[in-house]
Design goal:
Blueprint (H helix, E strand, L loop, with lengths): L1 E6 L17 H16 L6 E5 L2 H14 L4 E5 L8 H9 L6 E6 L3 H9 L13 E7 L2 E8 L5
Parallel strand pairs: 1-4, 2-3, 2-4
Antiparallel strand pairs: 1-5, 5-6
Helix pairs in contact: 1-2, 3-4
Length: about 150
């Protein structure tokens, strides 16, 4: 299994409800750039798991459009900023039929999720639109790449 954990692109400042924050133009460009990078790697997700928050949804949409992909989409409340990383890791473990999974979420959840999926991995802060690639083979997980957006 290969899992790509992606933080949403740059979002507008705080508004009335955090869940309603939209991507800035720069954030849209970041998401598109990551989708184009995935396309250049000939990578196509079997599934997309995304937060219920608008900026994560917009990031996923922009990246998938640039990638030319339309995987099965699952929207999870566990992927919100204060979501449950262990619950997501447990769901990954219970989904062996997925070979390539794209997860789009938020800080700090993305760093906790990498830590849960790759035991011993030092927690890291994600830049906006950053992708961390995790390969799981024979029950052993490792971080194989940390991809920053080409748009900064």
């Amino acid at each position: 299994m290969q899992i790509l954990v992606m933080r949403h692109g740059e979002a507008e400042g705080q508004i009335t409800h955090d869940a309603e924050r939209r991507l800035t133009l720069h954030g849209q460009q970041q998401a598109k750039a990551q989708g184009a990078w995935l396309k250049s790697q000939d990578w196509q997700p079997d599934a997309l798991w995304v937060s219920t928050y608008l900026r994560a949804q917009q990031t996923a949409d922009q990246a998938l459009r640039a990638l030319g992909a339309s995987p099965k989409r699952l929207v999870l409340s566990e992927l919100t900023p204060d979501g449950n990383a262990q619950a997501v890791a447990d769901l990954v473990a219970a989904s062996p039929e997925i070979e390539r999974l794209l997860i789009v979420s938020h800080m700090p959840l993305v760093c906790y999720l990498v830590e849960k999926l790759v035991p011993g991995e030092v927690p890291m802060a994600f830049a906006t639109a950053q992708i961390v690639v995790i390969d799981i083979e024979d029950g052993k997980a490792k971080v194989s790449l940390r991809q920053l957006s080409s748009v900064d």
